[in-house]
Each structure stands twice: as structure tokens, then as C-alpha cells.
Amino acid sequence: MNPFSSQLVKDAASVWRVMNGVFSIYKPPGLHFEQMKETIMRNICRDLNQLKPYERQKYVDIKGSTQAKMSVVVRDSYADHPLIAGPQYVVEDLKFTYANKLSQESSGVIVCGINHGSQIIQQLREARLTKFYKIRGILGQARIGNFVTGKLTHKATWKRIRRHGIDAVCAYMQADHQKKMFQMAGVDIRTQEAYDLATQGIIRTGDAKIPMIYSIKCVDFQPPEFTLEMVCLTEDDDYLKSIVAELGYKLHSFAHCSYMQCTQFGLFNVRDALLTKNWNLQEILDSMSLNRQLLLENPHMLDPHDPKHAHLQLKSDANNNA
């Protein structure tokens, strides 16, 4: 239980002092990132202002003639009256940062930081953690932007496509990306040096802007729809859409993306992310406490040079192997 739960602490100033950390939220599809950010910050300020405010300043008023006995009256000062000074906490007081960003079409886990939590967010960015995606696609159609909301441009047959064909293309694309990783590291994939490099952990390119795919596989095929699970690094949503379109081309057809969900960022899993209805102060404090423990148990997530590669493993798999 969070020691700073609103059930235990009613003082807004005490809660504000511990509003430093990272929390994970679930962004639904169709919600713009800036709108999500503004909603969270407004909800935090709203809940803080509903707690017990700080003690108002006192105004000392001395009345009476200087030639006679004067009276001293102590009353609340109007300088910090809520109707004059406004709310105690406003959005501008918060420093909001994020470790990963999703487009309006995407959904999934986003790791955010508040106030001094921005320092941890910066470390998470520099660590370049892997991200797990679940992506659904539709065969036989090409659309502008490679997404279901785009205008239909081309059609092609898909009835001859089988599951083993998709699996073969996915295996080829994965092997091609793995080969490029070793090439960019200047190592021949057939040598002992390449094996030693692979055993040290995740192979990262020197350029943080180059996207890489570590794993891609088809987990469901209900033609013309299919579902992919991908493990990526330094990608963006446009790149993921292009992978789906490329898969369609290699199958001698077309394909576009209909759904994208980031299920895990490092070890921050979507199951622990806060739903829209839970974007409030209490739930965010609880999430900060949970993620603080997660980072203490897995310090390698903050170190890009750590040889461990547990963050390449699904969280559910890691729990089963424990």
C-alpha cells in the first residue's frame, strides 16, 4: 500500500513533496497524445486542490488612535485567498515527461514521469529499451498511410495466401534485420566474434534513429485478417505500418494495418498500466510506488551498457521462469 495514500495523508503539501516518480498509463486508440497529457495533468491538479490546502497567511491589523489604547486584530490575508490567488496547484506547476510516445491511432502502455521523475525518464530513453507490439493487419487492400482510416488505393486477391506463407515471410524479415545488426556492428555473423557479441545482450546500432526488429511472428490468421507480435527498438508507428505493407508485397498482395498496441515497454507491462478511468491522483501515486519497486528490482533497465537482456523477455515469461 502506498504510504502516501489519500486515506492516510490529507495534506496537499505532503502529497506534492512525493509527486516525483514514473507511472505507466494505457492510452486508448483515437486519443491524441497531447490530449492525454493535458487530461492527466488537469486530473492531478484537480485532486491536489481537493486535499487540505496549506495554512493561509495571517494579516495583523492594528486599529485605533496612536494617542490611545490600540487593538490588534489577526485575520486571514486576502493575498492568498483562493478567489484572488486562484487554485493552489495549476498545470504549469507540473513537469510532465515521457519515455515512449504513441500516435493517435495506436494504443498501449506509455511510461510517464512527474517532476523529478523526469530524470528517470531520461535514463529510460538513453537505455533504449525494447518494445513489444501486437499488430493486426488486413490482406488484399492498400490504403494511404498504410492504416485502415486511409483512403483505399489498390485491391488484390488474398484467398491463395496461407499461414505458412506468412510465417516464412516473417522469418525472412526477422533474419534480414538480425543480419543488418551485425553488419552495422562491423562483425561477420558467421564468426565466433558474432556469437560472443550476441551472448552479451541486445545488439544496438550506434545510430538511435535506425529502427530494428528483433522478433516478428504471426500469432493468429483469420483471413483476410492476421495478427503479428513484434519486438522492436527505436521504431515509430509509421515504420510499423510500413512493415505490414511490406509483408503484403512479399506475399504478392497488399496489406494495411488495422490495429496497433504497445503491450510492453522494457518491463513496464500493459497489465499494470492505468486505464482512462484511473487517471487520478491516488492511482498515479500507487503506480509510482509499483514502478519504483520494479526499477529497484531491475536496475539494468536504467543502464544501457548492462549485459543483462531481461527486458527482451515478455514479463509474463519472466514470471513463469522465476
Automatic annotation (TrEMBL):
SUPFAM superfamilies: Pseudouridine synthase. Residues 95-233 form the Pseudouridine synthase II N-terminal domain. Signal peptide: none annotated. InterPro entries: PsdUridine_synth_cat_dom_sf, PsdUridine_synth_N, Trub2. Gene3D superfamilies: Pseudouridine synthase (3.30.2350.10). It comes from the Eukaryota. Belongs to the pseudouridine synthase TruB family. This is Pseudouridine synthase II N-terminal domain-containing protein.
